[in-house]
Amino acid sequence: MSPAELFATIALAHALAVASPGPDLAVVTRQTLAHGRRAGVLTALGIAAGLSFHVAYSMFGLGWAIERFPALLTVLKLVGACLLLWIGWGAIRAQPAADAAPVTVSGKAAQRDFGIGLATNLLNVKAMLFFVALCSAVITGDTPTWLKLGLSAWMIVATGAWFSFVAWTLGHPRIRSRLVRSAHWIDRAMGAILLLLGAGMLWSVLHG
Description:
mainly alpha; 10 helices
């Protein structure tokens, strides 16, 4: 497979995975509607930062840790499930608002938003397994380092750009103000999705 074909294959698979519904999309949507555009973008950047870790160990052969220490995957699943359940529980209890909630711009709020995105992606076991499987299938020992670095940079930037676009769009003052009356229902729907994802992960650990 030529470098161009390899790049196109991974880029397409990654694009389909990122655009599909999952914890990352649900969290960005929830954060944007609850706290505004800035919070959504910071959450998106946190997700991209978390993705860099998955890409690094998948692309450069550090995935051996999962095979060598099977219990590590179980622990990550449990922690990830608990995180999704916690965020989902908070979202599903959202209450109606008379107007768009004021946007908080403090340093602590920024750290919170970035941290939520980072933790959500880092503990997203499906993302972990996806990148390990994808890279194991197409990346070989003969793949040049420059191509690995290029692919890594592309996936990280593309992920951050996509979720930032979602946050930027949903967080537009006019769009957000129109959604505010039904935002609590959207929030609850996102919460239900996160609860189902978390429960599914927990079930797979306990009954896998």
